[in-house]
Amino acid sequence: MTTPTSAPALPGRVLAVAVCSAFLVGLDSMITVPLIPEIAADTNTAARAGGLFVSAYALLFALVAPLCGAMSDRLGRRRILCTGLVIFALANVLTGLGGDFTVILISRAVAGLGSAMIMPSVYAMIAENFPFEKRGKIMGIVVAGLLSSTVLGVPLGAYLAYLMNWRAAFVAVAVVAAAVYLMVLVRLPVMAPKDPQERAGNPLASYFGMIRRAVTTPALLCVLGSTLLWSAALYGMFSNIGVFFSERFDFNEAQTGFAIMGSGAGSMAGALLGGRIADRLGKRRVLVAAALVAAAGVSAVPLIGEHLVPVLIVFILWGTAVGVGQPVLNTLVSELRPETRGTALALNGSAQYAGMMLATSIAAALLQSSFSFTTIGILCGVCALAVLPLLVGVRVTAPQKAPARPAPGTEASA
What we know:
The chain is 79% helix and 0% strand. The chain is mostly helical. Helix 10 packs antiparallel against helix 16.
């Protein structure tokens, strides 16, 4: 079956759109972290419950991403991407206008819906427009774009909130979303609709049929489990890092934003490096090393105590390890079921955000029950290590290249 993006989109244009879209989603998912103390104070909410803003965002993403991925397989990446960007922008405006905890919680969930339409389409476009032997490198560039938001966007958003208020930061995200939407309209070609016979029938039955076919691959299930655990290992601690720095070192929004910038720089470098190394040394081998470093880092951050410089150094190393591992997982998924790539990548995104939702919800409950950040860090470290046994079930082989056609005039005579 011909995929919807097999048309004349140039790989360079696809990559530019993918990186900008990933930056936008990364910005929105991370910008809440340094702002939680201020949002909590403004809405009369306990700061340690602020992680639920991330949970709401992640919950809706996890629930609808498989359906959105199947829709992109069926209706086309560009259409679903544009729809997601519109929903995403409106949700951020609503967050900025929200006057109480419930409204903000709902708007964060709607933003998660927009993200669920954006990212599976982006990853599928990359997998369809770049060859197998370059896919780890290119996927690393896209993940670096997502993580670069913690280097540029999140510190700027936090500083804007410091100068004005937290609402201005979300309005700024909506403006960036509008700019990316215009970029998609200009840079990506309009795709021809699929054969009406392929679009006939019950759409939901077709979507869930795609999902069932995608999850019948045991190796894919192992990768999805790895992604869930990898995400839990990151976000259980990271979603509360603003509260951690505020309580332990009396950081304000701007200071937390700059600390996140350091970790984000490490993650970005790790993503760029990890994708290239994985193409050469093997994806499972690189992921094992990244998991070991990430587990040690996330466990050590709250254990170091009141020593700021060592905490920041370990925070950066932890972020670097996470950056190395993320593009490897994305690339593995893109190679396991090429015929339903959008669906498989959407399931991977769903697993990622399910891990985020579970980890942030559990962490918020533990912190409100007076558990320490040390407990959260150790649990996250255990999640990172739990990825390792699942990798045993993952086997990916490069697709066979079609044999070269003989030059004209050299065919063997009958």
